[in-house]
What we know:
Layout: E1 9-10, E2 16-21, E3 33-36, E4 39-41, E5 50-53, H1 54-57, E6 61-64, H2 72-79, E7 86-90
Antiparallel strand pairs: 1-2, 2-7, 3-6, 4-5
Amino acid sequence: xxxxxxxxxxxxxxxxxxxxxxxxxxxxxxxxxxxxxxxxxxxxxxxxxxxxxxxxxxxxxxxxxxxxxxxxxxxxxxxxxxxxxxxxxxxxxxxxxxxxxxxxxxxxxxxxxx
Length: 114
């Protein structure tokens, strides 16, 4: 597929990104509402197991860039994307679910939080 041989770039925050497809237009500024499709997968021992896909659910995820209730890694990843872009992202734990209120919450997420 199009993701074979993608080279991940690690940002100073620890976020790793690789663009599969460049979008068009300007980057969203903090405070901008964006809508994304995502596939959430595990890393670590169960690497690559799909947790949730917005396409499977037919419900894209809309959030405000920089909103503190959204996992920081998602806001950061989207902040340098353009409309229509596709990016693979590895979010380190410190930029992920740092507490139980962070969004987006995958269905059945409780089983990952024991």
